[in-house]
Sequence to fold (775 residues):
Amino acid sequence: MAAQLGKWTIMLDGTSLPERSYIGGKAWSIARMRALGLPVPPAFVVTTDACRAFLEDSELPAGLTDELAHGMAALEVATGRKFGATTQPLLVAVRSGSAISMPGMMDTVLNLGITKAVQTALGEESSDVLFAAATHRRFREMYARIVLRAPPGADGQAIPDAEDIPSDPHDQLAAAVRAVFESWNSRRAKRYRGHHDIPDDMGTAVTIQAMVFGNLGARSGTGVLFSRNPLSGAPTPFGEYLATAQGEDLVSGSVTPLPLDALHTDMPEIHERLIAAAKLLEAENGDVQDIEFTVQQGELFLLQSRAAKRAPEAALRIAVDMAHDETITRDEALRRVNAEQVRALLCPKLRPGAADDAELLARGEAACQGVGAGLVVLDADTAEAEAAKGRDVILVRPTTSPEDVHGMLVARAVVTASGGATSHAAVVSRQLGLPCVVGCGDAILQSLAGSQVTVDGGSGSIFQGILAVDTPDERDDPRLIEFGAWAVDASPLTVFRSGEQPAGDILDLDHAPGGELVENLPELFKNTKAASGRALLSDAGVAAAVQAGLEFIVLPQTVPALLAACAAARENERM
Amino acid sequence: MNELHLVLHGVAIKKHGSAQAVADITGLKEETVAELLKQALEKGRVAEANSAYMLTPAARMALDGEYSRVYAELRGDASFAAAYDIFEAVNRDLKQVMTNWQTVEIAGKCVANDHADKDYDAAIIDRLGDFHERAEDMLDSLIAALPRISIYKDKLLSALEKAEDGEAEWVSAVKIDSYHTVWFELHEDLLRILGRQREE
Fold:
């Protein structure tokens, strides 16, 4: 085999495609992309054989150190850069990778190979000493946290102890490889394997890949490309590009990226190549791709390609479009959209224009979308008391804590004076699907008290009065109608829209004792043929109905329940 | 330590909790908690509804006034204070993990995580596990000074392991002892012990 570097390592040049169990999922993807003729930063892999040898002897197998040096030499040739050198230095990313991903395995260490001298060289090359310093700092933090497993200090960061990080890049590499192998026997990984019957001797591979830089001059940059629009689902590529920047800049949001057209203007041939790659990868993988790429001195590199995350609208449109053009089957299309996504599509929204004449009382950070209206109360106990009388309440608090949860459970929306998107109020509201606006300022506690308001969690606005709200109807969306029909064919359970159900005995869970709790459903469903009620609005509720073999259920909207029923049937089959 | 204080403290944290929930979080025996809650109910210190308890406003003020005396020694313990500082620092990371669990950024737009992407979810649960491991030394320092904190540590690990085993609700669901629920209760406990205010 041409790609074999030695007993323990393989060059991922696309000339062969070894088993996943031998090189791990990440290396396999790299090899496959190379085999498809796509530009991927050069990489080699230490196989799971080496891991098994390490696990037996608790030391790196004989010859591996030499092979690592050969592998690095091969990367040097492929990149024209040099590991540990003070001109055009080569840095690498080290990743664990097993055939099955599991918790507890070592995270990626980026920028390995950087030292004080290398930092200086990188600073000169990029004409950006701050970037070089940040690259070095990032490596030290990652190495300390991931390889040395240093505990966090008072600033929450792992504290790198200078003398614990080897000054020789080759020693850094050997230590990182060792840390990957050791992570195979981390407590979490072992427990996970035990629970999922994964053999302990499967082992992990280690992928070592050249880092590429998007900030080496004007003909460099970084970006992401989606093979279709991930927000709308429109079948046109969608992307962002930032010239002379590194991936971190894009992720951190410190700089605003430009639409992909910017790349088209700067380097049309690269743009064309990228679009072609996206098309190829989408066809090969049968799903919309999210591709991270970097252009280094006029050369395109694809860093990663994976199935794109998508907004609910896009999930539906893409699944229907791909089933139409027979890229995927209808069954597969039904797997690509889950009940939660359709629920999000059918979530109540402010009626268009309803807020136009309404007085905007306050504005904050949108923490959870949805609309809720009612009377403002300032503490959880009052919220509970008012809700018990059947009133719709909006809980407004300075911040929330566990003591407020009982009030949040009965509120129609939650508003806080301070705190951001990660605050307790935001986390709990999202968990409850409760409209939430945070960080509106201390003044709201006084100004809103006792008012009737409408909270729009999507825009972060609080309006005076009770505004009109529309609940989208699944029968108004042609795509949802077609998709719903496929779901009817596949669902093990019939779902009637409220008002369209046949006459007969139907258990109303809303009026059955304990019927609001999913854990009571198996008992309640005994000797029952049909049911309705709010407990069936959750996936778990529908799964209980499938499990109990109910003939049908009755709900205001059918598609979410049909999808949940299909998912429950698949889950039963898998068990 | 005064058991009644601990019970009322437990009620403050597990607001609307049952005697069992209070016993669970304080490490006291359920019979002891039930008995003390009965007495507290008679004296008007707690109110009860459907076997769930809450402090009355007067008892709440009295409780808040007791912490400085009950935890006087702990408030002067430098190692406890240092561990608490680390708690506050890593608390930001935990909140970020929770936010990434619930929301995802799609092409620059923040949308709810619909949990359709199993790989994404697995990666976040892995991050939570990594977070837990990094927090362990800090938790052990807290436990060394106040042994009952080990209850939280055990509950955190239990929630993490359930999430790892595929029961995703144990990451942040509200009505169960999910990782987020327990972490926040621990936070509340520490704030009360040290007489600090929550900062968002």
In short: DSSP finds 21 helices and 26 strands in chain A. The mean pLDDT of chain A is 92. The first helix of chain A runs from residue 20 to 35.
